[in-house]
Amino acid sequence: MIAIKVNGTEHRLDIEPETPLLWVIRDELGLTGTKFGCGIAQCGACTVHVDGEATRSCGIVVGDVAGKTITTIEGLSAESKHPVQQAWLAEDVPQCGYCQSGQIMAAVAFLKEHPKPTDADIDANLTNICRCGTYVRIRSAIHRAAALMKI
Amino acid sequence: MSVINTQISRRQFVVATASAAGGLAISVALGDMADAATIRPQTFGPDTVPNEINAFLAIEPDGSILIRSPHNEMGQGAITALPMIVAEELECDWSKVKVEYASPTRNLRENNVYGDMVTAGSRGVRMSWQMLLQAGASARERLILAAAQKWNVAASDCVAANSKVTHKATGRSLDYAALANDAAKIKLDKEPAIRTPDKFKLIGKSVARLDTPHKINGAAKFAIDTRIPGMVYAAISACPVPGGKLKSVDDAPIKGRRGVERIVKLDDAVAVIADRYWRAKEALALLEPVWDTGEAGKTDSAQFAKMYRDSLDGPLVNAKSDGNVDDVFAKTVAAGGKIVESLYEAPHAAHAQMEPLNCTARFDGDKLEIWVGTQSPMNALRSAAATSGLKPENITINNCFLGGGFGRRGNNDEMRQAIRVAKEVGKPVKLLWTREEDMMHDRFRPQAAVKLKTALGADGLPVAFDARIAVGSIHRSSGNPAAASSEVEPQAVEGIANTNYKIPNMRVGCVLKNTHMPVGFWRSVGSSQNAFFMESYVDELAQAAGQDPYKFRRTLLAHRPDFLGVLDKIAEKGDWGKPLPKGHGRGIAVHECYGSIIGQVSEVSVNGKGEVRVHRIVAAVDCGHVVNPSIVEAQIQSGVIYGLSAALYGDLTIKNGVIQENNFDQYEMVRLADAPKIEVYLALSGGKKWGGIGEPGTAATAPSLANAVFAATGTRVRNMPLKNAKLAGAA
Ligand code: FES
Ligand code: FES
Fold this sequence. Notes:
Chain A has helices at 21-28, 83-91, 100-113, 119-125, 135-150, and strands spanning 2-6, 9-13, 47-50, 53-56, 69-71. Chain A is built from 5 helices and 5 strands; from the N terminus they run ββαβββαααα.
């Protein structure tokens, strides 16, 4: 049995410890907002927070997060009210949307470290792939979110 | 005249008035958008509902208005823009609009009432705008008639606005909801005329996208998110050499593994069935299938590149032949005039849409239900019928949000596999490709080689042009029987045979050659390589003529004011001709495809190590009319980034018949660090033009980039990707 806490709920799972966290979140817990894009920690579509840190969940096994606190996109805020989500909404960032859970989770963690980011900070630290090419709006939305968080 | 304003608050409507004079004027915020139109996280619903006015529209007792979108949402904004067109004529309250996909099964039953439903070829608005305006207008007229009959007044004395019909003389009014049942029974003698663009009220506004609220919290349902009772998972591996067959496979290595149920053998693939995807995928990796790969298993990319180059020597079939090309070449040579000849090449490109292909299939007696993300639901329906042996009317295609399409999701390969596997297993199956499977079994952009030759007159302008094109046939590869015997296909020669440059003598020859690699429609299709060839080459001609590349293009396009509008816009906004730091360069390109003209000025720098950095891309587009400026801006940005990944990094190599770059560690993508500033401007010519917007942005990117690299370094790049080019560092 492996115990993990996801979005505030404790789960005790009878599962192989080497299962990537991604598949536990999606298939065991049914939280499908976290996406599979590459499976090799390259694209960031599967980004979640493990003890507050942005983590590519395809690249970490569930055995290694036992006892830790995990937040997925579904647990980020009630009613999509997190400033990053609000900024994403205001800028109409998503296109196909498939990468966006990961983009948002990565941006939330990034803004904690860089509350007043420059474009250069954004470019150097955020490496998630968006195949639809929403990067220009992602940059604007991060600046907007930073401003919202200051208020 | 302003760049499209992206600062859209959902509580504000940015009113953008597109004007034929060019550019976009943003005026003031208006109204309250707190209750914008909506779509549910799941895109599909029952194919018929009570209270329908027509197949596109139902007005419910609570006043909400269901609009069905004949095209799907894969990021391009269709489910926002297309309902806007219906709502434009319907005169309804936009906040009451709910959107769902139209049903392919109903389309079949009702004689293609939704058109072909194909979401490809940038055709959403381009092909459907009249049909959608008509659907809205027709419903509005019937609602007015229903009210007029109730009041016993003339219909011409009534007006419709904001989901109400009002009798002008008395001020009486009725909500659409109260009229819907009567309106549904009314048959019009003749369809009302649709309104002209000068009357548009909703069209032309940057209305917020309907799908955004579900794409910021993980709610949007993609096919991969399907979960149905009793479902098992399938991981699948097709023969790594496309076209190869499965000889044998032993399931002993996975017997007794936790959750693993069995294997399923298809003629060209093996699948493992398990209670969890991860267990299926892990077990699959333990199998050692034996494949019959035939001769294809001995091939490599260098050999294919040579084959395409050698094919240029002919024989070729003419796609176009105007004037007397050979004579003019001979005369030019005799007179000591200039001849410019160049060989260009392009490799395969992979779609690499973000959501790997997947499909869930469930049989229930003689019924079949499918959950998939398809760009071609009608083909999916027909193909599901053929694969399952069931009647199409007994099949439901639940089309979901698509995690990217770009042309990959039109073939339904994954659906046919899921149907076969589910049939054999006797349970509902979710079948999912890994990224590696997705990249190795893409239907790639065809490989190509072209030779372009031009004779320049004394004034430096081209007098004769000869193009020889060798490229893979998409029609043959996708088994399109009608087109498979044709020796020239439109996408092979598009952007070259139909070039708008004025050249008096022209010949374009083509030879179609296929390898075992499946090829398909990749965002902007033939234009993605042909615009690179042609627009890089036109730069070479300008250079040979000693002329400025922008002015040279202007001269050759003087007969096309729409092209000039785009060229002038990018030259102005892109600071054409203004000084740049050492090692920097600007490149220009202009191209027409999918009914739109796209122009771009790219600004790059190349450092001492020959590394390219893209700083800024300024784009202008003439798509004639704009439904939603914010979506147009996003699509051009999107197309540019897509083109940029391919132009900078997109290299696919084949060894022993197998694609080597099969995940993002080897098939690099542009990320934020490489994403330039992108400015998008409109240069609308209006009139009859209603151009597409999903693809043009991709086509102009590679050539404007290559031309900028030339400006920065003096090195002409004639093959993609740029990362393979040996660039002299900054002079
Ligand atoms: S799926 Fe985890 S990084 Fe791509
Ligand atoms: S929005 Fe489609 S991949 Fe990012």
